[in-house]
Design brief:
Blueprint: E1 4-6, E2 9-11, E3 13-16, E4 19-22, H1 33-37, E5 40-42, E6 45-49, E7 55-57, H2 60-73, H3 82-95, E8 101-109, E9 123-130, H4 137-143, E10 145-153, H5 170-182, E11 187-191, E12 197-200, E13 205-209, E14 212-215, H6 225-236, E15 240-243, H7 248-252, E16 256-259, E17 266-268
Parallel strand pairs: 10-11, 10-17, 14-15
Antiparallel strand pairs: 1-2, 3-4, 3-9, 5-8, 6-7, 6-8, 8-9, 11-12, 13-14, 13-16
């Protein structure tokens, strides 16, 4: 579908700074500040086709709230209201004829001043949606994946605030992911700077042992919206969920380890 393609990502329209533009026409200058220095924020939102055939966006208000929280953490002022971004998110699905898919609101600093101080460069906003299947593939859902503990550590909480989804932070995830793939694994499990289990490259992590579900506390891990949903659903069903520190050997002896984005069995190494 769509009239343009970039590595399989296709679509018709992109919302850019308040206007709908053709997919191929959503371009920025090569001196865009965020391209050089990585300061920007984003969200990853899913729309699912439900059993009755309708489409449902997963926890849209919480995602939009976190987008604004991330911007605030990074001293970025989004030039549109949450209501406008929410409507653009929904309309993006319609514009791209998607009954389910992935939506990426993105806030970034435009071109103008260079150097570490972007000055009064414009804060720009895009909303993009496209068809995107399971993050770790259909086979990962049905058979589980192989994961290894990465040699790369998660960001220290005082080196870079960890509660925001900041664009540049994901260089850390990219390095860990590529290392894992090159070593023959599907995903990386990352430790914090104290050597405790943090999260995967793009997923929060849970471990189950003896019927108790454990997950690292909110310190060096992202306050995942899917994470919070799983905790609430499990507790509603009478399951015991503990937010507590996890060590590497806790994962080795766990009955099962699960990443929130894949909800599939993960073997760690």
């Amino acid at each position: 579908m769509g009239d343009a393609s970039a590595h399989g990502v296709t679509g018709h329209k992109i919302w850019l700074d308040g206007e709908w533009v053709d997919w191929a026409g959503a371009q920025v200058h090569v001196l865009t500040h965020s391209l050089h220095y990585g300061l920007g924020v984003f969200e990853g939102i899913r729309c699912y086709r439900t059993v009755d055939g309708r489409s449902a966006v997963f926890r849209l208000p919480e995602h939009i709230r976190r987008l604004y929280d991330s911007a605030h953490i990074n001293l970025l002022e989004i030039p549109f209201s949450p209501e406008v971004i929410s409507e653009a998110t929904l309309e993006s699905l319609r514009q791209n004829e998607l009954d389910e898919g992935y939506i990426r609101p993105l806030v970034f600093i435009g071109d103008g001043a260079m150097g570490l101080n972007p000055g009064d460069n414009a804060i720009r906003v895009a909303v993009i949606s496209w068809a995107w299947g399971k993050y770790l593939g259909e086979e990962g859902m049905s058979r589980g994946i192989r994961a290894k503990v990465s040699t790369f550590s998660r960001h220290h909480v005082n080196a870079k605030m960890t509660n925001g989804k900041t664009c540049g932070d994901y260089v850390n995830s990219i390095l860990a992911k590529r290392e894992a793939l090159l070593d023959g694994y599907d995903e990386a499990i990352m430790l914090d700077t104290h050597g405790l289990v943090s999260e995967c490259t793009g997923e929060n992590l849970f471990a189950v042992r003896g019927g108790v579900i454990r997950t690292p506390p909110l310190a060096t891990v992202l306050d995942g919206i899917t994470r919070a949903t799983i905790i609430q659903l499990a507790r509603d069903r009478g399951m015991e969920v503990v937010e507590a520190q996890l060590t590497r050997d806790d994962l080795y002896i766990a009955d099962e380890s699960r990443a929130t984005i894949s909800t599939s069995r993960t073997r760690s190494s």
